[in-house]
Amino acid sequence: MESTEKLTDTNAILAYLYETFPLCFIAEGETKPLKIGLFQDLAERLADDSKVSKTQLRVALRRYTSSWRYLKCVKAGAQRVNLDGEPCGELEQEHIDHAQAMLKESQDKAKAKRAALAPKPAAKKAPKKVAVPQRPKTERPAKPAPKVAAPVVNYVQAQLTDLTKKQRVNVKLGMTPVAGVITDINKEDIHVQLDSGLTIKVRAEHILL
Question: By 3-state DSSP, what share of the chain in percent is helix, strand and coil, each rounded to 5?
């Protein structure tokens, strides 16, 4: 006597459909698009089968046609099939577009779910600071002693009558007076031998005392 125990698990109902209609429902690999209105044909064919109810058949059929495997087969050039695997016409473009949209939406949801469940990477620890050895302090060279300003000398303009031979005087040459010794006086011309050894002839107004 045939068992009358009803199948309530969707996976069990799908397995029953794979076994009963192997040319329509494909258990593994690439599937085939199903005939429009196939549920009605399925309900009529299994009307006397006490194992499954129409409600459970509808749930199983929805799971089958919403799987990625099935949605990928809904493409241009594919033929729909009936319960016996016989061709029932090509797919319409709107059905292809709808299937591809459902596939993308389902894959995006699965991707987002996996991302949410994925363990978060551990926060990177800040690198340890390595102590840099300090360079030994080198002694700075001693600052040179400040230059002592030369004492200010107040020179007096010489008069011709004040000058004599062998007298030390200063001759105005440029900005700085140059020291020397008078070697000869010829009227207004005064001959002076500078400390550098050079002998020059100047007037009294160029001599400072």
Answer: 35, 20, 50
Residues 71-100 have pLDDT tens digits of 999 999 999 999 999 999 899 999 999 999
pLDDT digits over 106-130, tens only?
999 999 999 999 887 766 676 777 7
Q: Distance between CA atoms of 38 and 34, rounded to whole angstroms?
A: 7
What contacts 134, CB < 8 A, 6 or more positions away?
none
User: What gap in Å lies between CA 50 and CA 89, rounded to an integer?
Assistant: 32
How many Å apart are CA 39 and CA 57, to the nearest integer? 8
Cα–Cα distance list, 58 to 39, 138, 161 (Å)? 7, 91, 145
Structural tokens at position 113:
């779910």
Fill in the DSSP letter of residue 30. Answer: S
d(CA 17, CA 25): 7
Separation between Cα atoms, residue 34 and residue 88, nearest integer Å: 9
Q: How far is CA 88 from CA 38, 59, 83, 153, in A?
A: 11, 23, 10, 129
Q: pLDDT value at position 2?
A: 46
The answer, as to whether pTM is greater than 0.85, is no
Taking Cα atoms as reference points, which of 68, 73, 62 lies closest to residue 30? 73
> Is-contact 25 14, C-beta < 8 A?
yes
Q: How far is it, in rounded angstroms, from Cα 67 to Cα 25? A: 13
